[in-house]
């Protein structure tokens, strides 16, 4: 729903799937801003939707931005959790340097 609102497109249109998904730069920028503001105000921030399950790189992006939780499809929980854990470990390694 957020993607549809930001881009002003029909999310169910097959013709727009390549440009009208959560990997779109405008969508990612908006999510980045929202996460930053919530973290600054000490508000819990999580996300639900298909993107973290469909796009592992999007789940990594969310972790990089400081998301606190994300919903996942049952069939992707293990794979995405491993992706998230790997990204969190990388970020901890950078912070320790």
TrEMBL record:
One of its GO terms (molecular function) is pyruvate, water dikinase activity. Keywords: ATP-binding, Nucleotide-binding. InterPro entries: PEP_synth, PEP_util_C, Pyrv/PenolPyrv_kinase-like_dom, Pyrv_kinase-like_dom_sf. SUPFAM superfamilies: Phosphoenolpyruvate/pyruvate domain (SSF51621). Residues 1-87 form the PEP-utilising enzyme C-terminal domain. The keyword ATP-binding applies. Signal peptide: none annotated. Pfam families: PEP-utilizers_C. Belongs to the PEP-utilizing enzyme family. This is PEP-utilising enzyme C-terminal domain-containing protein. It comes from marine sediment metagenome.
């Amino acid at each position: 729903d957020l993607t549809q609102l930001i881009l002003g497109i029909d999310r169910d249109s097959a013709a727009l799937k390549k440009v009208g998904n959560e990997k779109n730069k405008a969508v990612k920028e908006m999510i980045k801003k929202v996460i930053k503001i919530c973290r600054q105000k000490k508000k819990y921030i999580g996300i639900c939707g298909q993107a973290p399950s469909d796009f592992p790189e999007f789940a990594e992006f969310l972790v990089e931005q400081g998301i606190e939780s994300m919903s996942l499809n049952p069939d992707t929980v293990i794979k995405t959790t491993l992706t998230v854990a790997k990204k969190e470990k990388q970020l901890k390694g950078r912070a320790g340097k």
